[in-house]
Design goal:
Elements lengths: L7 H10 L15 H5 L5 E3 L8 H8 L4 E4 L4 H4 L6 E4 L4 H12 L2 H19 L1 H18 L1
Parallel strand pairs: 1-2, 2-3
Helix pairs in contact: 3-6
Length: 144
């Protein structure tokens, strides 16, 4: 698991309780997350709350399909069934099924991987987003 957050302690406890601590590694905060994401087959984002879904977007930029909770701004980033899947928050069963669908079909994984990378580049690349913000700020200042 990559990252730190308020639920890490609970996650570590659950891993010990389920006796899967040999199978789960908690990496904590990482500065070069793309190096790890480039090795991933699927990204899981089982959040209860997300303002935007930056972790999903980072995975998509690396061509990693994602299975995410349908919360906050995540549906603005990831299209269900295209770059990955959206599931209801806390629906662990469906999240696991969707992740298995991706990793068990190399063709589907490749399609979603390509779609994820393409969407990240076309819609969220800083070279296109920053000029949009600059234009917005310029219009606000001119009309203010």
């Amino acid at each position: 698991m990559i990252g730190d957050g308020p639920d890490r302690t609970i996650a570590e406890w659950m891993v010990r309780e389920k006796k899967i601590d040999q199978d789960v590694i908690f990496l904590g905060k990482q500065n070069q997350v793309q190096d790890l994401l480039n090795c991933a087959d699927v990204l899981l984002l089982p959040s209860d709350l997300e303002s935007f879904g930056l972790a999903a977007l980072e995975g998509m930029a690396c061509g990693v399909p994602a299975v995410c909770s349908r919360v906050g701004g995540v549906p603005e980033v990831l299209r269900d069934g295209v770059e990955g899947y959206l599931v209801e928050a806390r629906d662990v069963e469906t999240m696991a099924q969707r992740a298995l669908e991706i990793v068990s079909s190399p063709k589907r994984q490749l399609e979603m991987s390509r779609a994820a990378r393409q969407r990240a580049q076309q819609n969220f690349c800083s070279s296109s987003i920053i000029p949009q913000y600059e234009d917005l700020y310029r219009r606000v200042l001119e009309n203010g």
